[in-house]
Specification:
This protein has 681 residues and is α/β, with parallel strands linked by helices. Helix content is 56%, strand content 11%. A hairpin with a 2-residue loop joins strand 12 (590-592) and strand 13 (595-596).
């Protein structure tokens, strides 16, 4: 919170206790400070009151008072002792930026650099540097930051983008944040375990005046009507969306939607469900949801993932489920699978879990994308870093959806595709045998085992034991990896340290460990691969398209200038450049490890090629530092050279040493030689 002092609490108590106006002179006498100090204090108090939807009314020659009903005053009084609590440790850059973003999003007025500097006990120059980074974050969410002398600092942009930024901020909120807003621990128990306690705390911190559990109750009642349940991520996203909607509607800020779109949505069952949820919230929060807001809720439901128990179903049951999908969707699923198979030389078509999982996943995805919505992917960064190669393959798969349906697929959805494909690739390999180590009791151990079997059905759990029995077990059984909830050191066996809850991040960590087990190169495979490596490099990455240590300040400059070279040399049509720039405005093509893969529409490619660019200094790519760019001018779905390139690209992203050598190369010739040699020194 802001720099909230004991005096501010005392002033608020005076205002809460008095229904009649109180003069600043009267408060100043009680507090034994000047009226000027009280006027400054009231500015800080006013911001606190904004969080509780309480207005501070000032009437000249009359006094000041709180415009609020009794229940709101009681809530404020209950939380007053905790407002502004924070850990007295120095705030690092990330904490400061989170605090400033929170203030900017919630504030109805402009802020000043000096205000923020005073709050955070740093210089105005430090705040100015923080604002530079915050501006990049806001631009990523299609918002602008106004910074004018004698005016102040304020976020501007349309309502939809502002709400999306709110949601993204909440999703990325640090679990170790030092700022609190007076939320008692007993208030932070969600109605449903799908909403993590930490997420509830985050929402209560941002919106202390909104009872999140009332929002949960409305969703749970809607699920009864629907006859099915939302997945954990969709449930959380819907709670967040509705809480933000209530906050914004109270501020007289509603979403706008064309009448034609509302009319079309009213024909769906999802709109009726949205209207039911809106009605429940109107009664609970005394706020009116217009038709456009109901339409926006229905879009969330249309794009929702529904909970299923697919991992427990037998193959014949999966085949029955598949009959429920239309032929066009199933064809897209198999096209995605075939591209992945051809690219990686792995058989996936017979994996009914993959086919059904993709179909179940893509149906709501297509609804979301058609309506310009994205579902936040909480583990996108881990996917990019741990599964960089598969994430790159998922970009090709996304191209199939784009070409077939004419809709753009963003990085969040590409990340989800990568998760499905990565899990299937793991299943296609021989199953790994895991030993699970847990320090808790038998009940907790069994719950952990059950959870692991559910989320990692392709791993054989040999045993679940306390740490003291680990050595005896690994001597008597063949163990590929150890999954543990406590720190452990065992020589010769890879270890995945996870939480007892087995989160999505934990699943990625385990799969990353399994991936590392399989990265010991098979010499025979490498020798076979050398037969076509040189052909790929010479045909798809010619010397004239390799550029070493270039100096570009912005990604747009690189895309345009290198795109012009591709067009001038006859690899693409001129329009290709604009489509690459447009794609980059919509979503980032950063795939992790300092690598980006910008690309335009493949129907504008004349001759398939890849331009490789290394940079003297990293450039900002949607908030990430990029120093290697693979500029793709490829036919993504029907070129043998493209598939061969991505086989090599997959190996390259899985080879940190190779990527490091490319980044450190001193000339384009050296880069070409490294690419042709592949993983060999």
């Amino acid at each position: 919170m802001i720099n909230f002092k004991k005096r501010h609490r005392e002033i608020l108590k005076i205002l809460i206790d008095n229904d009649a106006p109180v003069t600043t002179d009267h408060i100043a006498n009680i507090m034994r400070v000047s009226t000027r100090t009280i006027r400054s204090d009231l500015q800080i108090i006013e911001e606190i009151l904004d969080d509780f939807d309480i207005k501070l009314i000032r009437k000249p020659r009359v006094g000041i008072y709180l415009d609020a009903q009794t229940d709101k005053k009681i809530m404020l009084l209950e939380k007053l002792p905790h407002i502004g609590e924070y850990n007295a440790e120095p705030f690092d850059t990330q904490e400061r930026e989170k605090y400033i973003i929170s203030r900017l999003l919630k504030s109805n007025k402009t802020l000043t650099t000096q205000e923020l500097a005073d709050d955070l006990f740093v210089s105005r120059m430090t705040i100015s540097n923080d604002l530079d980074n915050i501006e990049k974050w806001l631009n990523k969410h299609k918002l602008s930051l106004i910074r004018k002398p004698n005016y102040g600092i304020k976020i501007t942009g349309n309502e939809e983008n502002l709400r999306n930024a709110y949601a993204a901020f909440i999703a990325s909120y640090s679990k170790k944040s030092k700022f609190k807003n007076g939320v008692a621990e007993c208030d932070t128990v969600p109605l449903d375990k799908r909403l993590a306690t930490e997420n509830l705390k985050q929402l209560r911190d941002m919106f202390p005046q909104i009872d999140v559990r009332k929002v949960e109750r409305a969703i749970l009642e809607s699920e009864k009507l629907m006859g099915s349940s939302f997945t954990e991520e969709t449930y959380t996203a819907l709670v967040v969306h509705l809480v933000i909607s209530i906050k914004r509607l109270r501020a007289k800020k509603d979403i706008k939607m064309p009448d034609s779109q509302i009319k079309k949505l009213k024909e769906t069952e999802e709109f009726n469900l949205a209207a039911f949820i809106a009605g429940e919230l109107e009664r609970a929060f005394d706020v009116k949801f217009p038709e456009s807001e109901k339409g926006y809720i229905s879009l969330h439901i249309l794009g929702a993932k529904i909970q299923n128990q697919m991992v427990f179903l037998k193959e014949k049951d999966l085949e029955i489920i598949l009959k429920d999908f239309d032929d066009d969707l199933i064809q897209i699923v198999y096209d995605i699978i075939h591209v992945t198979e051809n690219t990686l030389d792995v058989k996936l078509s017979n994996d009914k879990m993959l086919v059904t999982g993709l179909a179940l996943h893509l149906r709501p995805v297509i609804n979301r994308l058609k309506n310009g919505m994205n579902l936040h992917n909480p583990v996108l960064d881990q996917i990019k870093e741990n599964y960089t190669a598969i994430y790159g393959i998922a970009w090709i798969a996304a191209g199939i959806i784009e070409n077939r349906l004419g809709i753009k697929v963003g990085e969040e959805e590409v990340g989800y595709l990568a998760m499905h494909l990565g899990a299937a690739i793991d299943r296609a390999k021989s199953p790994k045998r895991a030993l699970v180590v847990c320090s808790s009791g038998i009940g907790t151990a069994q719950l952990l085992s059950s959870r692991l079997k559910k989320v990692l059905p392709d791993i054989i759990l040999e045993d679940i034991v306390p740490s003291r029995l680990v050595q005896s077990i690994i001597q008597s059984k063949s163990i590929d990896l150890i999954i543990t909830t406590i720190p452990l050191e065992v020589k010769g066996i890879p270890i995945a340290l996870i939480s007892p809850l087995v989160t999505q991040a934990d699943v990625l960590k385990i799969r990353s460990v399994i991936d590392n087990i399989g990265r010991i190169k098979n010499i025979k495979i490498i020798q076979q691969a050398q037969n076509y490596k040189k052909g790929i490099v010479s045909n798809l990455i010619p010397q004239e398209l390799i550029f070493c240590k270039l100096n570009y300040r912005k990604k747009e400059e690189l895309i345009e200038k290198v795109g012009n070279i591709l067009a001038k040399k006859g690899y693409v049509r001129k329009e290709f450049i604009n489509t690459a720039l447009e794609r980059e405005k919509i979503t980032s093509t950063y795939i992790g490890k300092g690598v980006a893969i910008p690309h335009g529409e493949d129907n504008l490619v004349i001759k398939p090629a890849v331009s490789v660019i290394t940079l003297e200094e990293p450039i900002d790519w949607w908030g990430e530092d990029v120093d290697v760019v693979f500029y793709l001018a490829l036919h993504f779905t029907n070129s043998q050279y493209t598939k061969s390139f991505f086989k090599e690209f997959y190996n390259m992203m899985d080879n940190p040493d190779l990527l490091k050598r490319i980044k450190e190369a001193k000339s384009s010739l050296e880069i070409s030689e490294i690419l042709q040699a592949g993983g060999e020194s």
